[in-house]
Amino acid sequence: MEFFDAHASLGHWPFRSHPVRTAAQLLARYDSCGIARGLVGSLSAVCYRDPQAGNDELLAELAPHRERLLPLAVLDPGYAGFERDLAACQAAGCVGVRLFPNYHRYELTAAPGRRALGAVAEAGLLACFVCRHEDRRQRHWLDDPEDLELAALAAGLQPFPTLRFLVLEGIGYQASPFVTDPRWRERRFGLDVSRLETVLYGSIDQLAASLGGDKLVCGSGLPLKGPHSALLKLDLLPDRALAAAVGGTNLMALLQP
After folding, report:
1. Which of 89, 144, 145, 206 has the greatest number of C-beta atoms within 10 Å?
2. What confidence score (pLDDT) does residue 229 get?
3. For residues 14 and 47, is the Cβ–Cβ distance under 8 A?
4. 3-state secondary structure the chain
5. CA-to-CA separations, 65 to 26, 27, 58, 203, 233, in angstroms, rounded
6. Over the chain, what is the mean pLDDT?
7. Rounded to two decimals, what is the model's pTM?
8. Cα 105 to chain center, whole Å?
């Protein structure tokens, strides 16, 4: 099975040091544990006043490695030039956009959120949402945004039926609208099953039964997490066809317009 990582990042994180800031360092980690490819965004851009500066850094860093590392833009709809930056990132080869309503302080159901989701949908790009970067019990005291709530994500995404999206680092999927409301089964999206809950409560098998195995993906969380726990979750799945789908083929399909 070739693992296609749904969640990796490069750059600096202002609240802690980490050992993976460059494409070469990320690829070395990938090679050490057998990860074939990954979707990669900029950690720096999340906290830069102008996220586009971080996107430019990321695109330059990934340029020699596009066959394995696929870039995602980080954009803030509250910053001037959002649409210009979105167009520039798409032209530069970004396959999707990471939106951070918790860090950039807006609601997906309010005007900035609707503006962002509509623009990403119109561009035909993948929208990605990172519910958390780190466990709240271990964060720096200035790293205080709340984790994204699944119900709030669903409420924001509901009016945009053509938008493809990923929910990363989420838990509690079984009780969320993505599972309890059957209308979501017609949508194209992926839920990341990398958190510990998936092992403790057998969530991968339950979600596959409820939603279908084609809506599950897995991310390493590098560099703020290690990759081995995500890989182990797939190794523990007795259904090897499901493991292959979650580990790569679902994400490949979701990237297709």
Report:
1. 89
2. 87
3. yes
4. CCEEEEEEEECCCCCCCCCCCCHHHHHHHHHHHCEEEEEEEEHHHHHCCCHHHHHHHHHHHHHHHCCCEEEEEEECCCCCCHHHHHHHHHHCCCCEEEECCCCCCCCCCCHHHHHHHHHHHHHCCEEEEECCCCCHHHCCCCCCCCCCCHHHHHHHHCCCCCCCEEEECCCCHHHCHHHHCHHHHHCCEEEECCCCHHHHCCHHHHHHHHHCHHHEECCCCECCCCCHHHHHHHHCCCCHHHHHHHHHHHHHHHCCC
5. 11, 9, 11, 34, 27
6. 93
7. 0.95
8. 18
pLDDT of amino acid 105: 95
What local confidence, expressed as pLDDT, does residue 199 receive? 67
Q: Which residues of 231-249 are buried (b: 16+ CB within 10 A; e: fewer)?
A: bebbeebeeeebbbbbbbb
Which residues partner with 117 through β-bridges? Answer: none
Domains and CATH numbers, the chain: 3-254 (3.20.20.140)
User: What is the rounded distance in angstroms from the CA atom of residue 246 to the CA atom of residue 192?
Assistant: 9
Residue 14 in tokens: 């202002």
Instruction: Tell me the backbone φ, ψ of residue 204, rounded to 5 degrees.
Output: -65, -50
Task: For tokens 């490949």, name the residue.
Answer: 252
Query: Regarding beta strands 69-75 and 3-10, do their DSSP bridges make them parallel or antiparallel, or are they unpaired?
Result: unpaired
Span 177-226, pLDDT tens digits: 999 999 999 999 999 999 877 766 667 888 998 898 999 999 999 998 88
Of 146, 195, 145, 150, the closest CA to residue 174 belongs to 150
Residue 223 preceded by cis peptide, ω within 30: yes
Q: Is 230:221 a contact under the CB 8 Å cutoff?
A: yes
Rg (CA), the chain: 17
